[in-house]
Design brief:
The chain contains 5 helices and no strands. It is mainly α. α2 packs antiparallel against α3. The longest helix has 18 residues, at 15-32. The protein is globular, with a radius of gyration of 13 Å. The two termini are 21 Å apart.
């Protein structure tokens, strides 16, 4: 999965900017993914990150190892006050 790339790309952005930009990126990449297979992995990872940000629930289709890769992004959002600190309990 591409969660590392997503975390690196969005870690300094605000919560709503992440949601907006990541959703826009998923739509854009879906339009060209037929030409590039590796985009499928990135799109799936982006959807997993979006699901967690929007629901606060660990996506069922992601391994614990991959899920923990989101932690730095979520920590940044907690530090900025964009998310409540209780969300960090999902990573325990």
């Amino acid at each position: 999965m591409e969660i590392d790339n997503i975390v690196d790309k969005y870690k300094d952005k605000e919560f709503f900017d992440i949601i907006f930009e990541l959703e826009k990126e998923v739509v854009r990449l879906k339009l060209i993914k037929g030409r590039k297979q590796h985009l499928t992995d990135y799109i799936n990872s982006a959807k997993e990150v979006l699901f967690f940000l929007q629901s606060g629930i660990k996506p069922a289709g992601i391994s614990d190892w991959e899920f923990r890769k989101m932690k730095p992004l979520i920590e940044k959002l907690v530090e900025k006050g964009n998310l409540k600190k209780e969300i960090m309990g999902c990573f325990e």
